[in-house]
Specification:
This protein has 409 residues and is of the alpha+beta class. The chain folds into 2 domains: 2-115, no CATH class; 215-394, Orthogonal Bundle (Phosphatidylinositol 3-kinase Catalytic Subunit, Chain A, Domain 5), CATH 1.10.1070.20. Helices cover 33% and strands 17% of the residues. The protein has helices spanning 50-58, 69-76, 83-87, 108-111, 121-126, 173-187, 220-224, 235-245, 251-265, 323-326, 344-352, 360-403, and strands at 2-8, 11-18, 25-31, 43-44, 47-48, 97-101, 151-156, 159-164, 194-199, 202-208, 215-219, 276-280, 286-289. The strands form 4 sheets. Strands 3-2-1-6 form a 4-stranded antiparallel sheet, covered by helices on one side. Strands 7-8-10-9 form a 4-stranded antiparallel sheet. The protein has a 3-stranded antiparallel sheet with strand order 11-12-13. Helix 6 packs antiparallel against helix 11 (344-352). The N and C termini lie far apart (79 Å).
Length: 409
Amino acid sequence: MKPYTLMHKNIPVADLALDTASGVIISIGAVYEAAHAPVGVPAREGSMDRGSLNEWWRGRAIPASRSGIRAALSELGVSAPELLLEKCLGLSLSDQYWIRPAGSSLLWENVNFFDNPFSEDVGNILFGKEPGSAEISLMSPDNTSDGWLRKKWKIIDGKRCLIKGGSGAARQEPYNEALASRIMDRLDIPHVSYSLLLEEDYPYSVCEDFITPDTELISAWNIMKTAKKPNHVSVYRHYLDCCSRLGIGGAKDAVNRMLALDYLIVNEDRHLNNFGVVRRADTLEYIGAAPIYDSGTSLWFDRPLPMIHARAKAVCKPFKNSHDEQIRLVTDFSWLDFSALKGIDEELREIVKGSLFIDEARREALCQGLMDRLGMLEEAALLSTKQAYVERTEFDVAQDVAYSGGEDR
């Protein structure tokens, strides 16, 4: 057992004891700043919910589903991903939380990964490469990266960038990230920009960290934990209600754009931990919805060629199990300029051109499938507009009847 203080930048939040054998927080001592507790963790002056804090702490670790994690853990000499958290003081490039050893005078300015260099040893090992030195350093933001694909943080030209690989025979996810970026560029949707990187002919996506030393990403999952969801309220409605309760503006518009994009590219993994909001760490002020990121598990990325077509069955998240059902949650399509997507199939064709993993037949199937999805999205938008018109007309008639005392005028 080791004593630490949970810190939010330089603000002490609470004392805790960490079991170094399991990585579990076994006790919570004094609570100093309940307002600075992680979002979704119940806290008040003097106490904090240990179960919720442990869930949040474990959620910072590399998931057990990460590709190649078992071999990497063996190389790193640890038995579970959770044990890597302590090795980097829980520091992340997504927020400003960390744990300070009891009695230490360490400051956030001295240890954070936004302003200080970090080891690439963990990232290289996760990618199946040799570490940079004989003595492996575990002081790395890779210890607190989520997701199941191989990924690593790297400082490129002074910028913190995330490099992420693909999966399966097609290695398609990096190309999908690049395409999603191009689509959102055309539609003026706030997003994280992804570019392609080829190393030894293998494709990787690269994006710059959109979180700064002064901001932090709060996932939709954590936002939704700030209030208990009534049984009769949908997950979609609960998320928007929580955003409203917290004073987060523009949430519905951001969700509209995200769901329309996901319908178009057939995104299968928009779960509650890869979208959310951004807030200022010092003041706890919410800035608004986070830019859209992590869109690679789309465009039939793991499907064989015969199953690549617009109406192929695909799973859906986060609010419905079907894209056809989920697109009906979009309340406004007026922002969507379909003319801006003219020739988007040619852009996809250019993105995957030269790939050793995507042959001509797959490329053409992807381009045709994308254009067919675009046509389906136009149909959904038209149907939504017609439905909205009918509802407005029925409302106006009802208002007229009420105004005239129950008789038509």
